[in-house]
TrEMBL record:
A biological process term (GO) from this entry: epigenetic regulation of gene expression
Protein family: Belongs to the histone deacetylase family.
Descriptive protein name: Acetoin utilization protein
Lineage of the organism: Bacteria, Pseudomonadati, Pseudomonadota, Alphaproteobacteria, Rhodospirillales
Superkingdom: Bacteria
Cleaved signal peptide residues: none
Pfam families: Hist_deacetyl
Residue span(s) of domain Histone deacetylase: 20-306
Molecular function as annotated in GO: histone deacetylase activity
Amino acid sequence: MATALFYHPVSLLHDTGIHHPESPRRIEKILSILSETDFDALDRREATVIDTAKLLWAHTGDHVDRVFRAIPDTGYVAIDGDTVICKDSGEAALRAAGGICDAVDAVLNGEVNNAFCLSRPPGHHAERDRAMGFCLFCNPAIGAYQARNEHGLQKIAVIDFDVHHGNGTQDVFWNDPDMFYGSTHGSPLFPGTGSEGEVGVAGNILNCPLPSGAGSYEFRKVIEDNIFPGVRDFKPELIIVSAGFDAHREDPLASLNLEDEDFGWVSKRIVELSLELCQGRLVSILEGGYDTGALSRSVALHVRALMNATD
Ligand SMILES: [Zn+2]
């Protein structure tokens, strides 16, 4: 079986303004690399629009209403200092959340081995009742609830290696002992959460902050010594990855020093962990990564690692 790639071109129409780092150029550059013959074996699928009722698995009705009421007919609206939307942002967000549900369906129905969701806007900063940090809806958490509510799985783990802490996923999972969130991230850094003392209602949150300047050695050590043992103890039936690539040395928004190869390594190790714990059930979704060259090279290694699980 193949690796699925979920995508929809409306993700390119989510326009955040000419100087915004979370731009359509990120997706364009990734699509360019994934068009190479090395990636011919990908099972390319269109991300569908999520049923808006499913957004309420992770969010308050007030939050969902506020997002859609804010969408302008023309121009831009800034929900906060970082989070900018335009007229197509609503559909892009609905297909980002829909795409991860589609990916969960495809993996759990046995149609594909694993899946990558190439989407914008990202999701892991969107809290239960608040959009922030370029994120409108918490895609990884919604994907986890798709697995529980539509497929009957009980325990789902999200692994997040974006350089920023996924305060949104943590917030949604905080009181749910059967949802696990494990994160490596730079600290101090936006959004300011993610200390080791934040553990959730039942030890189901595992935060591993890394100091500014940390690189390959520190990252690999905390993945092997902290994140993976936490996931193993939790015994998930599905692993979802919040795949952010902004811990790269070349990224302009943070100060960790990972190289392309570190993203290839962590991707391969997460594939191996999924084979060890949950029959290889693995769904990954794009979060951050703002140097388009480093981002696209690193995503290529990530997707290649997912495809190699099927070789
Ligand atoms: Zn980030």
